[in-house]
User: Which sequence fits this backbone?
């Protein structure tokens, strides 16, 4: 096993907490120091293998017959596994996987991780094509975890038109999941996030022996109640610098909480002060502690600006917002919002998921640098923008607003068209992809022109 998944940030929004009644599950896919180019593809039923081979662990998993078609955002280089990351299937069920989470030595002593098991690189490919509801997704993955085990600790989410379920792996074979209330949202950094848990509720699912595991091994540190984060998670110094501040910042913005960024007991399920839009989710997953001393681009001291790990990072490889809409025909219910690269200088595009192919510039990413590709173009924008954020940030804001407005205009037109054919949706996706690529190229040119006046290699006199 040569590659370990890197850290991400997840956001979930229940249907009554969202602006238009959609369920929203979203995540930043982050990586390590090197770039891991991503692509956007559709996996047809005939492309799904009869047996899935997990590259990192060597595990082989027989798969059910009759898989569904689904969108996928794998890595361009699949030599170390698929890493599908996110998708919406033809039954309009969405899945994002995974959020790398923390655990503790007590758990790993009881149920060690399984080197030959399954993990993030595999989850979407072996679950999403075979489920027709969010709840089914939890149950299928739970069965796979109990059968094969996992070599890492992860959190992941499923959504359909009615429900969102968030699931966390516990040790090598155990798991727990909770239905997110319709009027709530969640911001989940790289820690075990599920807190208060009721084993008797209709809104929880878990491996059968989990309650007994807690009792027989004396794992519950609380005098009253069940808090899975206290039992199975961590509360380390790293959490106070790397994880908790991300939850603190978004909860502060969306719920006006007055908590401390170091707080180890920030709430998991939160009620928003107003309904949350796709644009709000994108803003949250692009944030870097703006208007606080902790903003890496801000005016805090050097130690303040580097104290906490922000949500937007140079390590963002993609952001996806998987929207399942309630008040539209089935053909257009699933919308796979997607942007590649660091989130400070990108914009999400609302791709229809009920298609047979994805647009050029998104489906054809290679490991070789290509500024005509969405992934590499956005990485270029972010690299230049990072050198002088104040100089370029207004251009980035205008760019993102333009992309959003123009893509929504296309979407509104298509939504009202009859009949809603795959060809029509694919043409709309191509139009939006081309719009993004052309405006991103224009932004690059504007940044070059603006940056040219700030070059150190210049002289005030000309002749």
Assistant:
């Amino acid at each position: 096993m040569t590659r370990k998944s890197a850290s991400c940030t997840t956001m979930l929004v229940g249907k009554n907490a969202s602006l238009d009644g959609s369920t929203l599950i979203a995540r930043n896919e982050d990586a390590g120091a090197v770039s891991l180019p991503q692509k956007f593809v559709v996996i047809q039923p005939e492309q799904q293998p009869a047996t899935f081979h997990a590259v990192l662990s060597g595990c082989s998993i027989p798969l059910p017959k009759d898989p569904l078609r689904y969108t996928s955002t794998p890595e361009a280089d699949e030599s170390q596994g698929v890493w599908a990351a996110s998708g919406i299937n033809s039954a309009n069920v969405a899945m994002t996987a995974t959020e790398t989470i923390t655990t503790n030595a007590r758990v790993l002593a009881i149920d060690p991780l399984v080197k030959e098991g399954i993990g993030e690189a595999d989850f979407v490919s072996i679950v999403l094509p075979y489920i027709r509801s969010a709840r089914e997704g939890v149950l299928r993955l739970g069965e796979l975890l109990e059968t094969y085990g996992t070599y890492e600790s992860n959190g992941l989410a499923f959504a359909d038109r009615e429900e969102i379920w968030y699931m966390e792996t516990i040790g090598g074979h155990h798991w727990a999941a909770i239905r997110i209330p319709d009027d709530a949202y969640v911001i989940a950094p790289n820690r075990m996030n599920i807190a208060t848990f009721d084993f008797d509720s209709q809104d929880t699912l878990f491996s059968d022996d989990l309650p007994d595991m807690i009792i027989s091994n004396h794992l519950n540190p609380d005098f009253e109640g069940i808090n899975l984060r206290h039992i199975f998670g961590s509360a380390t110094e790293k959490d106070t610098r790397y994880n908790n501040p991300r939850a603190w910042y978004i909860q502060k913005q969306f719920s006006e909480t007055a908590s401390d960024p170091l707080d180890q007991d920030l709430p998991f399920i939160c009620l928003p002060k107003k309904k949350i839009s796709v644009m709000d989710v994108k803003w949250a997953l692009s944030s870097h502690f703006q208007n606080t001393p902790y903003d890496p681009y801000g005016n805090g001291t050097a130690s303040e600006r580097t104290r906490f790990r922000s949500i937007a990072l140079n390590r963002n490889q993609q952001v996806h917002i998987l929207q399942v809409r309630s008040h539209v025909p089935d053909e257009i219910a699933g919308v796979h919002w997607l942007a590649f690269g660091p989130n400070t200088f990108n914009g999400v595009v609302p791709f229809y998921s009920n298609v047979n192919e994805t647009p050029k510039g998104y489906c054809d990413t290679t490991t070789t640098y290509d500024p005509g590709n969405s992934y590499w173009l956005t990485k270029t924008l972010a690299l230049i923008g990072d050198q002088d954020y104040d100089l370029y940030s207004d251009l980035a804001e205008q760019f993102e607003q333009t992309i959003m407005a123009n893509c929504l205009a296309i979407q509104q037109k298509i939504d009202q068209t009859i009949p809603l054919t795959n060809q029509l949706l694919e043409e709309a996706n191509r139009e939006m992809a081309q719009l993004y690529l052309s405006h991103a190229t224009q932004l690059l040119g504007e940044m070059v022109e603006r940056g040219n006046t700030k070059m150190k290699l210049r002289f005030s006199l000309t002749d």
Observations:
- The mean pLDDT is 96.
